[in-house]
Design goal:
Nucleotidyltransferase, domain 5, alpha/beta, 2 domains, five-stranded mixed beta sheet, single chain
Length: about 375
């Protein structure tokens, strides 16, 4: 391939399972997925990332080492993809790297967000110009800095004939409301896989609950469900965003202690699945009346989640984003390839409907090869 209109999108999400690497070509701003590569995060690096996310005292040496090591992992994912697909680096105009979020604090007098994964290392090790640090410019313009994937949802999935919601289910869930009249909004609804992953890792030493099988073996506890839903975040007005700094293992353990009753681990997993579904559905019903709901992210493969979501959204068509032509596993990586293109083209992006930014802005810093 000798086409020079290639971009690469990189992201490691809240689940911290690995690096999604997508090679993308654009025609009239519409993405065509050329190739993909997934590189698992080394367990020791994942442990370091989780330590940084724990909101305790931060070891600056740990922070610096982890920043560089994530950058190296991202670069390795790019180089492996290029070798696997026999693609010359000179044909790639830019990499769009989301990085790894370790803390997100969009409120207060000095809101900030931290995505690490040293872009200098990525540029140096790949020889490709890298665009990174997308979220902080949005915050500087008065936005939440998240969610940003809805920018691609609006570009690719909006319809003039039907009201849609695009639901991204990773560690945290977010929805993009795309009305047929052109209006739109987006926000994080709350936890998706992050609590279920924590609970199954604690009890079964597994990274995730495949197909929701363990959750399906239990019965949701209504008292615990009510306690989980009793969280201030759910009543906040949009725009809003959240992450591991709120919804995490200690948060869940505190809720369980407050409940003060013995519940079987499988029943807690079932409750967490129901909690994820209910918080998403409540978020949708407060902001939209969609005819169609399209799911992307890892949750699209969780059959228990998908069937539970469909049951709660009766008379709505619930389907994977593959129905709209984009594989659910690669929507976010494609989004950051698309954002890199906008930045390289010098184009401002209007995030006002999604993050609350006060004006359209150019997102991301450019690290020239």
């Amino acid at each position: 391939m000798n086409d020079s209109n290639f971009y690469i999108g990189l992201i490691s999400g809240t689940s911290i399972d690995g690096v999604d690497c997508a090679l993308v070509q654009f025609e009239n701003e519409q993405p065509k997925l050329i190739a993909t590569h997934f590189k698992a995060i080394d367990p020791s690096l994942r442990k370091d990332i989780l330590r940084l996310c724990s909101n305790g005292e931060i070891d600056l040496e740990l922070y610096g080492n982890t920043d560089v090591n994530i950058g190296r992992a991202f670069a390795a994912a790019v180089n492996e993809l290029l070798v696997n697909e026999s693609i010359e680096k000179s044909t790639v105009r830019a990499i769009g790297s989301h990085g790894q979020t370790v803390y997100h604090h969009p409120t207060g007098n000095s809101p900030f967000t931290l995505q690490i994964g040293d872009p200098n290392s990525i540029t140096q090790l790949t020889g490709i110009t890298t665009v990174a640090d997308f979220r902080r410019r949005d915050m500087a313009a008065g936005g939440q800095g998240a969610p940003l994937a809805p920018l691609l949802h609006r570009n690719c999935f909006q319809s003039s004939s039907t009201d849609r919601v695009v639901l991204n289910v990773g560690g945290i869930a977010n929805i993009t409301v795309l009305n047929k009249d052109g209006t739109c909004c987006a926000f994080d609804t709350g936890p998706a896989n992050v609590l279920m992953d924590y609970w199954i890792e604690k009890h079964q030493q597994k990274n995730y609950d495949k197909n929701g099988d363990w959750a399906s073996s239990g019965t949701a506890n209504q008292s615990l469900l009510k306690l989980l839903m009793d969280e201030e975040y759910f009543s906040k007005a949009i725009p809003k965003s959240t992450g591991r700094e709120l919804f995490n293992g200690p948060w869940l353990e505190t809720k369980l202690q407050k409940l003060g009753q013995e519940i079987k681990p499988a029943d807690i997993q079932a409750t967490l699945l129901r909690f994820t579904i209910d918080s998403i559905v409540d978020g949708i019903r407060k902001t939209a009346e969609p005819t169609e709901v399209y799911v992307c992210g890892g949750g699209a493969h969780n059959s228990a989640f998908m069937s539970g979501l469909q049951a709660r959204l009766r008379n709505r068509n619930v389907a994977s984003s593959s129905s709209l032509g984009i594989d659910p596993d690669w929507v976010e990586a494609i989004a950051f390839a698309w954002m890199a293109k906008q930045t390289m083209d010098g184009g401002s992006i209007d995030t006002t409907s999604f993050t609350g930014a006060k004006q359209a802005i150019i997102l991301g810093g450019v690290y020239k090869a």
